[in-house]
Amino acid sequence: MNVALVAHDAKKKLMQNFCVAYRGILSKHALYATGTTGRLIEEVTNLTVHKFLAGPLGGEQQLGAQIEQNMIDLVIFLRDPLTQKEHEPNVDYVVKLCDTHNIPLATNLASAELMVKALDRGDMEWREVFR
User: Fold this and answer.
1) Is the separation of the CB atoms in 25 and 113 below 8 Å?
2) Listed residue (6, 14, 61) closest to 37, CA to CA
């Protein structure tokens, strides 16, 4: 499965911790991330992450193109609903694309944990039919 990982600045440390905790599961899948988030994940997990550009430099659009082409099976976008900055990726854009193309999306730690455990159990295998 192709898993996209994105995090607002205030959630990047949480994303690192999440990836460390679920490294065993994530290592079995292809990981994609916006530039800075991907680099930070690689630093703490030694996982291989395909890195798009940084969000404000076009990484969000690159991720969107992958979603539109049905190349992403799951998006984990840890967002900061209280202090989002102008330069951070627009969660509304990603939500709209995921809803349009029927891609599972987690936007907080609780839903991310449910999704990654479902991924491990094989509950996401239905995505294979869509590709």
Assistant:
1) no
2) 6
Question: Backbone dihedral region of 68: left (phi > 0), alpha (psi from -120 to 50 degrees) or beta?
Answer: alpha
Helix (H, G, I), strand (E, B) or coil at 102: coil
- List C-alpha distances in Å: 9 to 14, 54, 56, 70, 125: 10, 12, 12, 27, 31
- pLDDT mean across residues, the chain: 92
Helices and strands of the chain, counted as H and E runs: 7, 5
Beta-carbon contacts of 84 under 8 Å, excluding residues fewer than 6 positions away, are: 8, 91
CA distance 4 to 27: 13
- Measured CA angle at 53 (ends 101, 63), to 5 deg: 5
Domains, the chain, ordered by start = 2-130 (3.40.50.1380)
Cα-based distances in Å from 129 to 2, 23, 73, 110, 126? 14, 26, 11, 27, 6
State the pTM of this model. 0.92
pLDDT at res. 131? 67
